[in-house]
Amino acid sequence: MTKSSTIDKNIVLIIGILLLLLLMVVFAINLQNVKSTDLQGQKATDFTLTLFDQFKEKKIVLADLRGQVVVVNFWASWCVECYKEATLLEQAWQDYRGKGVTFLGVDYLDTDKEAQGYMQKYGITYPSGPDLGSTISQAYAITGVPETFFIDKSGNIAHVQIGPIEQGDLYRLLDTLSNLTMLHSR
Q: Yes or no: is domain 33-185 CATH 1.10.260.40?
């Protein structure tokens, strides 16, 4: 490798990092006065999530999932706290997917390659895709990642979890929301 190509690669890397930092600053400046936790109890904003290539579906529309409990997890491969809950979320997806619960992963400010590596490392099989233009994260006024929204059968945000969730809390929430779904369907 020539000295010139090494310098060129370093310049591209520095520019990429600066652009990522700029995006994060722009997002921070444009934060709404509404906090994600203020959305608890309100109707979940509809969105369309374009999925990563490994999923057979190309897109998922939140409104199409009405009648199910939906867990929307905002994550990123660069997020250290996200690693703490990745395996747990996948396990909960496996445990509850046949019980009317759907998980969606929304990848925040990430590269496709790094996101794919993260999903492979943690064996993530629930539908996931990038938040193109940060439109979903802005609609949900996230404060960072990880952040998880629990949407009930009626399409209302039942709970907002900022930071990684513990297994006991996750399963209690899913049991409660699943039971509420069963009670409402009787």
A: no
